[in-house]
Write a structure and sequence with these properties.
Elements: E1 26-30, H1 34-45, E2 49-54, E3 69-72, H2 80-100, E4 105-106, E5 110-114, H3 120-123, H4 126-131, E6 137-140, H5 141-147, E7 158-162, E8 166-169, H6 170-183, E9 187-190, E10 193-195, E11 198-199, E12 202-203, E13 205-208, E14 213-215, E15 218-221, H7 227-230, E16 239-248, H8 255-259, E17 263-267, E18 273-276, E19 284-288, H9 306-319, E20 328-338, E21 345-348, E22 355-359, H10 369-380
Parallel strand pairs: 1-2, 1-15, 2-9, 5-17, 15-22
Antiparallel strand pairs: 3-8, 4-8, 5-7, 6-7, 10-13, 11-12, 13-14, 16-19, 16-20, 17-18, 18-19, 21-22
Helix pairs in contact: 1-6, 1-10, 2-10
The structure holds flavin-adenine dinucleotide.
Flavin-adenine dinucleotide is lined by residues 30-36, 53-56, 60, 62-65, 70-71, 192-194, 222-226, 230, 243, 245, 287, 334-337, 359, 361, 363-367.
């Protein structure tokens, strides 16, 4: 398992600039998940006429944005792009919160659990945080035990606590972006859409499962794990893997200790277990980042895999011993939408110049969605270039 969920490689560059669309032109955005929802909202605010489309609705249970919560963190090793993107995204989420009048971001801080003296994934981001006036707290094994009495420190060398970060209410936040889009004058359609008629290198309309066609000047396909199905010509460029998360019930007498525990990430270099203890009363959430088998996000059943659950229980018995025999309250199977190198995908379709492909969140996209959406809107308005690392070519 590559660590690209945590720190994809990035080289600053000139990027790719597109011909700007004219003000007021009609853009159809297919997929109202985190990426599509924010893109549609920013496009609307730029004065375009926007139709946002989703088969099952924003933050639906099949989608990657449809789980209860998602981690927000800026630590990305030496990757400056994602560090800066997260800093900007954090500010956008707070602005959105105040605009919609709902708390969506919980700043619990993020505790990185490190096994070796040098952990570049964290160490290399600390200078970036320092530039933002932020100090990470170093905790040796004894201090970890003193600060976090429910934590088992077997095998750990030290911890780093980043005071900025925590979790977002994922499906609620995704739905609130779509509601805000509609409130600001956008059109939302709940229907499935596939590319329809095209002519001389341009797509002219979508075929909708509602039984009619929708014309537009440009199209953004932000279809997450479905992108590979909709565009087989991309040769499985975006792969959909089965990722599991579990919600355990904590012992009543320890509720406060778990509810006040920060978001944590176990940097073992292999499984990368991570968790959101508080998780808005849904139970102690734990996920495993190692890639699961490929699956069909539309049709496959989503029952937990007993082997994955057994691995999680073994990990809990070491890292959170009080939860070794905790009751499993809920589980989720969600699709990772993996790009080949973990960098996001933002590029024109190879055959249709007025089609933008947006996705490849690769297990770390949710937090960045406000900034990814803003970039996609600026790109369509010809106001910003697409970073090379997001383009389709020379990444396979
Ligand atoms: C288990 C798990 C844990 C994760 N943890 C984190 C985390 O802690 N932090 C983080 O930042 N990121 C995390 N991620 C990644 C993050 O959730 C995704 O990168 C992000 O949600 C992707 O958003 P999206 O809009 O691209 O895709 P989605 O949310 O999947 O949205 C795509 C939408 O397209 C719609 N659609 C598809 N095909 C069609 C069609 N033909 N017509 C109409 N609509 C269509 C679907 O219904 C769906 O709503 C995690 C992902 C998983 C699976």
């Amino acid at each position: 398992m590559s660590a690209n969920t945590f720190a994809p490689v990035y080289q600053p560059d000139n990027g790719k600039l597109l011909q700007p669309l004219d003000h007021g032109e009609h853009i159809a955005v297919i997929g109202a998940g985190a990426f599509g929802g924010w893109t549609a909202l920013w496009l609307l605010r730029k004065g375009f006429k926007v139709t946002l489309i989703d088969s099952w609705g924003p933050g639906n249970s099949r989608s990657s944005s449809g789980d209860e919560t998602r981690v927000i963190r800026s630590t990305y090793g030496a990757n400056r792009l994602y560090f800066d993107m997260n800093e900007q995204a954090y500010a956008h989420w707070l602005q959105h919160e105040s605009r919609v009048g709902r708390k969506l971001l919980y700043n619990t801080g993020v505790l990185w659990l490190c096994y070796t003296p040098d952990t570049p994934l964290v160490d290399d981001s600390i200078p970036f945080a320092r530039e933002h006036g932020r100090k990470f707290q170093y905790l040796d094994s004894a201090e970890l035990t003193k600060h976090y009495r429910v934590l088992g420190t077997t095998g750990l060398h030290h911890g780093w606590f980043d005071p900025k970060g925590g979790y977002l209410l994922a499906r609620e936040a995704t739905a609130s972006v779509c509601e805000q889009f509609i409130q600001e004058g956008g059109t939302f359609l709940r229907t499935e859409a596939i590319p329809g008629h095209y002519h001389s290198g341009r797509l002219s309309e979508l075929e909708l499962s509602k039984g009619y066609a929708l014309k537009a000047n440009a199209f953004v396909f932000a279809c997450g794990a479905w992108l590979g199905n909709i565009f087989p010509e991309l040769n499985n460029w975006i792969t959909c893997t089965r990722q599991e998360v579990f919600y355990f019930g904590v012992p009543a007498q320890h509720t406060d200790a778990f509810e006040s525990f920060p978001v944590w990430i176990d940097v073992d270099g292999k499984d990368f277990y991570y968790g959101i203890p508080a998780n808005r009363y849904r139970g102690f959430k734990i996920g495993v980042d190692i890639r699961g088998p490929q699956f069909d996000p539309s049709a496959d059943n989503r029952l937990p895999d007993p082997d994955v659950l057994q691995g999680v229980r073994h990990f809990l018995s070491i890292r959170f011993p009080l939860l070794a025999n905790a009751p499993l309250l809920e589980s989720r199977v969600c699709p990772y939408e993996n790009s080949p190198d973990g960098n996001f995908l933002l590029d024109q379709h190879p055959a249709w110049e007025n089609v933008l492909l947006l996705g490849g969140g690769s297990g770390h996209g949710f937090k960045h969605a406000p900034v990814v959406g803003e970039l996609a809107a600026d790109v369509l308005a010809g106001q910003r270039a697409i970073p090379q690392c997001f383009l389709l070519k020379n990444r396979v």
